Amino acid sequence: xxxxxxxxSPEPPRSTGTTVALAAAGVFGYLGVNVIVGLVALxxxxxxxxxxxxxxxxxxxxxxxxVLVGLRKSWSVGLGLGLMIGWGLASIVSAGFCTxxxxxxxx
Length: 107
Hints:
- With 107 residues, the chain is mainly alpha-helical.
- Helices cover 69% and strands 0% of the residues.
- It has helices at 16-44, 47-71, 74-93.
């Protein structure tokens, strides 16, 4: 008699819901931080303050987003994508004013 084959391993749980929920949280979290950093940078009334704010927001949105996606955990992928999407949406919707990309802010 032959040995019965082992039962198939159960499928890993899907993490799509977690990824989507954390992506939304990342977008709203980034937008919240963007408002605070923007208000602080604009209250300084200097181009250096605006530039530092722009670099910080880019590092938070793009830099931290890439690092989190690189971790390849379901929670980190969602949060990383959310941060990058938040940075992109803030840049596009505000024509670069909210993220410091608009050159008119520095003149």
